[in-house]
Amino acid sequence: MSQQLGGQPIIILRQGTTRNRGEEAQHSNIMAAKAIAGAVRTTLGPRGMDKMLVSSTGDIVITNDGATILNELSVQHPGAKMMVEVARTQDDQVGDGTTTAVVIAGALMEQAEKLLEMGIHPTVISEGYRLGMEKGLEIASSLSFKVDPADRKTLIKVADTAITGKSIESVKEKLDGIIVDAVMAIAEKTDGKYSADEDDLLIRKKKGKSIDDSELIRGIILDKTRVTEGMPKKVNGAKVALIAMPLEITKTQVKAKIKITTAEQISAFSEQERAALRKLADSVISSGANVVLCQKGIADPVQFFLAKYGVYAVEDVPEKDLKYAARALNANIVNKPEDLTAKDLGIAEVVDEDDDMEITRISGCRNPKTVSILLRGTSDYLLDELERAVVDGTRVVMDAIEDGTYVAGGGAVETELLMKLRNYAETVGGRVQMAIEGYATAFEIIPRTLAENSGYNSIDKLVALKNAHAKGEKTAGLNVYTGDVIDMLGEGVLEPLRSKRQSIQSASETAIMLIRIDDMMVTQSKNPAAG
Fold this sequence. Notes:
47% of the residues lie in helices and 19% in strands. It has helices spanning 23-41, 66-72, 78-93, 98-117, 122-142, 152-163, 172-186, 263-286, 300-308, 319-329, 380-403, 412-426, 430-442, 445-453, 458-470, 488-491, 497-515, and strands at 2-5, 8-11, 18-21, 51-54, 60-63, 145-146, 188-190, 193-195, 201-207, 215-217, 220-222, 234-243, 291-294, 312-314, 333-334, 346-354, 359-365, 371-377, 405-408, 476-478, 485-487, 494-496, 519-522.
């Protein structure tokens, strides 16, 4: 942004702009990337450590989820922000593997630093990394296995791998089943392909009892209770009506006055109002409904009539929850109670009120399109981490069902990438070969970190893994509990292929972008207080 004119530089940057050029800019980005990767590296794997994040307001988050950790950090460096974006993209696209993606990106930048010191141009490094990424994605796909969407046993292993290492590991066996059953319930087959929408899976958190009391509800949970004590607390064989309009006399659209001069007129007016409200209640009762979910309010007389006929009613149900209920119950939302027919009703085995949590539970729906997971825990911190684990688990099971593929975990894929990419580099030649070799070496970081976080010598375990893969054991990985190199398929450590592909792609593309930067211009915002 400066040019030489008559030997004098012409500066056209605004006042307060700081600028880093050449090696200084590259070094700055490399250091930022390594710092971000280092912040989450110790959380990788089943035996990774947790981080405690304390905000300026004193709010505490305890987690080992890479995306959560980086989202909570106030990152200022532009290069570091791009690394945070790697985690965010991985979380959005896959739901798990965020730490892996960030750690690989950091290792790629570390290898780039060594290549730059050797005098290899950033463009050559970028080209080598691009070729390495393309070959790496091809290798990862070749290492995948097919999974049937109805194969509950395999899907449970996928969920178990995602949950293992969380602080709620003690109940993972129960959670695995809940997660897989929930995803299988909402998965739909269209044109021969399966899909599962995460918005169709509701997660509700309620403090109290223990995490072992968490449950899957084939229906929905409402943070509401019945409108009056006179209504039944539990309804078996529920026929549920969903009404959008209020069950009360609504105000007119225009201003109007009613002039009453006698006691008879008052009585007649009251009787007419009561009859209109009775008609609203009769419309619901005549449809055969014994449960009513109303988006608006329910007038006291209507409550009385509904209670008299044993109808369980809930008022002020949020529109979002009413739509979830419609999908769970396969019911129709009607605007006016007089439009309600038996065909509009949803069927559920039980609708009941839970005094302990002050919720309404609608369960036992027929072929629900929406299901709910109720999480219990003794503290908010525990519930938050439990929710993060369940979200990760559900997302990876969705990935496996939608793609129909999975790979071995435990560093097996990364070790195979390391070996195969080095062989591939030899076929390329030139300086690009050195860049591809550096790209391959970056994948050492995953098995190394798994070993270090488990208390083992990383060099010994890496050598053992390489030996196993050299013998053709493509699914050999590190058992972090015993330190043995074993078959990850037999151990049941499985991950969706999508997670590996996304981590390779996100990390590589971010590293390529950062390597090519040789000039950083940071504009400081003008301080209004300074005038």
